From TrEMBL:
Gene3D superfamilies xrefs: 3.30.70.20, Aldolase class I
InterPro entries per UniProt: 4Fe4S_Fe-S-bd, 4Fe4S_Fe_S_CS, Aldolase_TIM, BssD/PflA/YjjW, Organic_radical-activating, Organic_radical_activase, Radical_activat_CS, rSAM
A Pfam entry, by short name: Radical_SAM
Keywords from the UniProt entry: 4Fe-4S, Iron, Iron-sulfur, Metal-binding, Oxidoreductase, S-adenosyl-L-methionine
Domain Radical SAM core: 17-295
Cofactor list: [4Fe-4S] cluster
Family listed: Belongs to the organic radical-activating enzymes family.
One MF term in the entry's GO annotations: metal ion binding
UniProt name for this protein: Glycyl-radical enzyme activating protein
Length: 301
């Protein structure tokens, strides 16, 4: 039994896009970055939070009556949530007859996650798959991640992968490397100021970690979430290709951006402004990266 606890917001099985083979992906909750285009805005805060889908709500008012914190008010547009009062108890989620409310985030132990993931061992073995830890940001919960990796990689023998922004001091990442088989590493922008403007954080740690992993020959696939008019410019793609060549990082996966997450922004009471990547812009980005002799693939996020 390992009672080390962490906060996650989902576990998905039969994933085909988070590393080789068929995988189970554990999504950590909480991220130090706040990317304008984040497809999982419910992953950004560390604590559990409520999503409210207005289109499903019939304004019956049951949730307002039952909220122990008086955090809900019924007005002309639907249910308004006072996030300062809400403690994330989930009472309003359980009683909603329309499933208009969802609570994102729960605390689980290493043993609980391992038990769920281990049920899929046969398909991992048959497909060459394993377990991926994504988020949110996995490196923001290093003790929890380390305990999961040591158990599932070292003791059980699963292939392990982390999907990360790379935003952590090098020693935090370095300590985990013996228990990781593959890193999927986002390089969102090569310019530090533009990176900070769109994500809330500079890219110094990220570039240092990418460079160090490349020089050590650690298995890394760079991931580029392709955001129109942000990082699909020729100057950024040239800088990225040059950096990867110098660092010895040969593989990049381009993630055409989609706006499927818009409804989640509305459900969290947030606004959203990014538009999907068009096919011509995707093709142009691939052409530029191919000039650098990189192994370029295209996936979906
Ligand atoms: S219980 Fe559900 S359907 Fe009824 S008002 Fe609350 S959110 Fe809307
Ligand atoms: S999660 Fe709990 S505290 Fe928050 S609005 Fe729902 S019932 Fe109220």
């Amino acid at each position: 039994m390992d009672d080390t606890r962490g906060v996650i917001f989902d576990i998905q099985h039969f994933s085909l896009h988070d590393g080789p083979g068929v995988r189970s992906t554990v999504f950590f909750k909480g991220c130090p970055l706040s990317c304008l285009w984040c497809a999982n805005p419910e992953s950004q805060r560390h604590k559990a939070e409520l999503l409210y889908f207005t289109s499903l709500c019939t304004r019956c008012g049951h949730c307002v009556e039952q909220c122990p914190q008086d955090a809900l008010v019924l007005d002309g547009t639907g249910i308004r949530l006072d996030r300062r009062r809400c403690v994330g108890c989930g009472a309003c989620v359980d009683l909603c007859p329309q499933n208009a409310r969802t609570l994102s985030g729960k605390t689980m132990t290493v043993s609980e996650i391992a038990e769920e993931v281990r049920q899929h061992w046969r398909i991992f073995m048959q497909s060459g798959g394993g377990v991926t830890f994504g988020g949110g940001e996995v490196l923001a919960q290093p003790a929890f991640l380390g305990a999961l990796l040591r158990h599932l990689h070292d003791e059980v023998g699963f292939h392990t992968c982390i999907d990360t922004s790379g935003y952590a001091p090098w020693p935090t990442l370095e300590a985990l490397l013996p228990h990781i088989d593959l890193i999927l590493l986002d390089l969102k922008h090569m310019d530090g100021a533009l990176h900070a403007g769109a994500t809330g954080k500079p890219n110094d740690w990220i570039l240092h970690n990418a460079r160090t992993l490349g020089r050590r020959g650690f298995p890394v696939v760079v991931r580029l979430p392709l955001i129109p008019d942000f990082n699909d410019t020729e100057s950024n793609l040239d800088a990225l290709g040059t950096f990867m060549n110098e660092a010895g990082l040969p593989s990049i996966e381009v993630l055409p951006y989609h706006d499927f997450g818009v409804s989640k922004y509305e459900a969290l009471g947030k606004s959203y402004q990014i538009h999907s990547t068009s096919k011509p812009r995707l093709d142009r980005a691939k052409d530029i990266l191919n000039r650098y002799g990189l192994d370029v693939s295209v996936s979906r996020e």
